[in-house]
Amino acid sequence: MSTPLVHIDAGTFQKQLVQLAETIAQKVKREAPSLLPGVPAFVSFDLHILTRQAMHTYDLLFYLNADERREKDCYWRPAYSVVTLPLIRNMIDCLYNITSILENPGVKGRWFRASGFKKMLAALDEDEARYGGRPEWDLWINKGRDFLDFEIRNQGLNTAEVLAACPWPTLGQYINRQQPGGTFTAHQGFLKAFMHGLWREYSAMAHGGSDGLTPVAVYYVPDSLLHEQRENVDQHHPRLLFKHITRAAATLLCIVTELQAYFRFDGARINERIHDVWEALNPAFEVKELFDERYAQLMKDKGIEPQ
Question: Model's pTM, two decimal places?
């Protein structure tokens, strides 16, 4: 039995969601520092940047795949839709980093930034070991060290703290890291949803794995298909767009909801707007699963209720 087609009008969520994300991003930048007493200001700013990254990625997917562009731009190709799909994995990483920091902003936000500085310093060490002694490289490496030294001190950190920082785990490392007793946290369980099932293909696509290429390979090589097969690929393209753009929207909506659940910002009808977008996207199977498994209860517990 074939799965019934689901139709969602992008007019019910596309602009609404990106505008909602911008509202939250600005709230995080301007209001979150006062809601995180004792926490370095850069933590709120990192949350702001991660939200903006996810928001602009989402916006890019719509920009590249707008009806007018697909139908009227003679230079547009269906492969452009496919080659940008790994960016959805980047959005998932933004969700992971944001929710991990929100577990303990004072500790994890500081760790996130210190770990990043440590990796940049280590990269300069590697470059110096390989290219040191060449004047042009020495100049570039020294400039990099001066810049990082200033940034570390400017953020209220110190070199000793940075060098002692443990590596910030990747999403894959994090969800597979067992707790004492061989258990996993609820947060790990939630994030595993984005690495399994219908979502796992983004990791494979991002790494150029065969399992990631197989579902979309025909879009890269339409000239290798029989002429009668090419029309089928074109006809399938709107369904592919619907599936992946809906998932991108769901990921951005998760970020927005997580930030509002933690900070509970006032004004701008944020709670109502969150409900409206969830309602618009819930007919999609993947979105409904996320909502039922986490967000219906989270929104209720945190008072994210429409007026």
Answer: 0.93
